[in-house]
Every structure is written in C-alpha cells, then in structure tokens.
Amino acid sequence: MVAVAPILVNGLVISSLYALVAVGFTMIFGVGGTINLAHGAVITVGAFAAYSITSAGFGVWAGALAAMVVPAVFSVLLYKGFAERRRDNVVVVMILTLLASIGVEELVRIVEGTQPRAIPPLVAGTTNLLGTTVQNNLVVVFVLSWVLIGGLFGFINYTNTGKAILATSMSTRGAALVGIESDRVNLYTWAIAGLLAGLAGLFLGSYQTASWAMGRDPLVLSFSIVVLGGLGSIRGSLVAAYVIGFLEVITTSAVDPRLSGLAGLVVLVAVLLVKPEGLFGREFTEA
C-alpha cells in the first residue's frame, strides 16, 4: 500500500521548487518573447556555486548567497551576450542558449566529475508532520520558496521597476511610449529569473543531490508547466507547477521511479493537442 503522507510532503516541496524555476522561465518569455534553454543550466550553476562555498568551509547561508549572486550574474551575461543581440530571432536565441547550457554542463562534469554532490541542509533535525517524520530542511525549503514567490509578486505589483516589467510584458510598444526602456527591463527579468533558478538549484541540491545534469529534468518540466498554465501566465505557472509536481511524485512513488519525467511529457502532449492556450491563456498582449 502506498503511503499518502510522504507523497503529500514530497509533492508540496518539489512543486514549490518547480514553481520557482517555471516562474522565472515564463517571465523571460512573457516579457521578452524569448525562450531560454539555458535555464536548466542556471539551476546547476546555483547548486554548484553553493556547493563550492560550503565545501570551502563557509556556512550554508554563505552558499545561499552564492546561489543567488552567481546564477543572476550568469543569467545577465546570457542576456547581454546572446538574447539582447538576437532578440528579434527567437530560434537563434534558443540555439545559442542551448549551446551555452551544454557548455556549462560539460564544464561542471569535467571539473566536478559525474558523482552526485551533497549540499548541506539549510537546517538540521526532523519534525513529525501528518504522522510521518519530515526533515526540517524540507519545511524550510517549502517556506522559503513561497516567501520568494510572494516577494516576487509584491515586487511586480508594488515597485516602479516591477510595474515597468508588468507594463513591458503587456505591450513593449506601449511601455516604450511612456519612457520604459525594454532592454533594461529584460535585463532585470533575466537577473530575477537567474536568482530564482539558482536558489531552486540550492534547494534541490540540499533536498536531493547536485549533479552536472541536474537542470535537465526541471527544464523539461518547465516547458510542461508553462504550456499547461498558459504561455506568459505567472499565475498559471504556479498552478501548473503543483499539478505537474504531484503527478511526478505520484508516478515515481506509486508506479515506478524509472518513470521520472514521463508525467510532464504526457501532460505537455495532451495540452498541446486539447487546449494549446493552457489553463489561463496568455496574459500579455502583442507588442
């Protein structure tokens, strides 16, 4: 008989991590209309930035700082090097970011090897929750993920920079008419997406392990989440992250661990065939 409580706990935690990844992914698409295929590699960069700092003897919270700063800078470099120069050609940006992703993964594989690396948990100890023993680290990961998501919504809705991002996502031309610089807004968006993905890498590494290809599955699932939620819809991405996350956990826990990633692909194909606009559709107008 399958235990429900572990599935519920793992589903909540992994879905919150997928939400962090998917929100950044959909922000880049919603604001700039480009698809960043290096988004999964940003997760890997965040995880190994944290691993390097903690392995050097610094605390895990210093590693958390590295997991924010390094991926954000890396994401900004991706934008300045690739997306900004070729923003009118989505296919070229996809190819360039895919090549960057492969390069990052190979570099990590060469430097760190293929063995999974353990990142220390953010906090130690366990808690009894829903009749099952849960690591305190998982509780903290879940809470921090939603603090970050809530902070992002507050930033978007209540700051001038956030409102500029929202305006640009609605209409680049309209935003330009009121003096908003789309290049700067896109730069901010890529930096935010990188920060969120980097922290997701840290959380995933402390929850499971870090490896050179750890960003691949989250990237594929991000496609499923974004399509299911509706292209450009942050709200849709949050809802879809929990749908995909729980399907993933149920499939691997109750059916077969080797089926990891299958649920997301099935949902992706089904949505594209039945409801290609997703649950919430696209929230942004054309430029």
Which SSEs are present, and which pair or pack?
Elements: H1 4-32, H2 39-55, H3 60-83, H4 90-112, E1 126-129, E2 132-135, H5 136-158, H6 160-170, H7 172-177, H8 182-207, H9 216-229, H10 234-255, H11 262-274
Antiparallel strand pairs: 1-2
Helix pairs in contact: 1-5, 1-6, 1-8, 1-9, 1-10, 2-3, 2-4, 2-8, 3-8, 5-6, 5-8, 6-8, 9-10, 9-11, 10-11
Subcellular location: Cell membrane
Keywords: Amino-acid transport, Cell membrane, Membrane, Transmembrane, Transmembrane helix, Transport
Transmembrane segments: 6-29, 60-79, 91-111, 138-157, 187-207, 219-245, 257-274
Question: Could you explain how this protein is built, in words?
Answer:
By secondary structure, the chain is mostly helical. The protein has one domain (4-274): ABC transporter involved in vitamin B12 uptake, BtuC. The protein contains 11 helices and 2 strands; from the N terminus they run H-H-H-H-E-E-H-H-H-H-H-H-H. The protein has helices at residues 4-32, 39-55, 60-83, 90-112, 136-158, 160-170, 172-177, 182-207, 216-229, 234-255, 262-274, and strands at 126-129, 132-135. Helix 5 (136-158) runs antiparallel to helix 8 (182-207). The longest helix is centred in the N-terminal third of the chain and has 29 residues, at 4-32.
